Amino acid sequence: MSLRRIKSGGAFEAKIGYCRAVVAGDWIHVAGTVAAPLPDTAEPPEGAAAQCVSALEIIKAALNEAGAEFSDVVRVTYMLPAAAEFEACWPILRDTFGEAPPAATMIECGLIDPKYRIEIEVTAYKPRP
Questions:
Q1: Class of domain 3-125
Q2: Residue 43 and residue 125: Cα distance in Å, rounded?
Q3: Which of 42, 49, 69, 99 is deepest in the core (most CB within 10 A)?
C-alpha cells in the first residue's frame, strides 16, 4: 500500500513534524486541526463556533486534495478544553455532515495553546478506482 502525505502549510506542521493528512489506500487520516489565524490579528477567531468553522475549512481542503469530501468521513473526534462550549458547534456540525453523519467522540482536554477552543480530527474512507 502506498502512502500519500498532504501538507497544508500550517505553522504547527513544521514545528512539530507532521502533515495535515495521510492517504493510506482507501483511508484518509486528517490530523487534529485547529482554527487558522485571522490575517489581521494572527490570532484564531473568537469562540468555539467560529474556530469550528475555520478548522472545518482546513479539513475540507485536505479531504478535497485527497479526493474525498465530508460525506466520506466515517469517524470524527472533537477536542475542547471546556465541554460546555461544544453545544455552540452542533448546528455547524449538523450542516457540515448533513445526511452522512460519522461516528463521533467529544473529549474535554487541554489543547496546544489556550487560545484554541476546539480541535477536530477525522478519518474518511474513499475507495479508489
A1: alpha beta
A2: 33
A3: 49
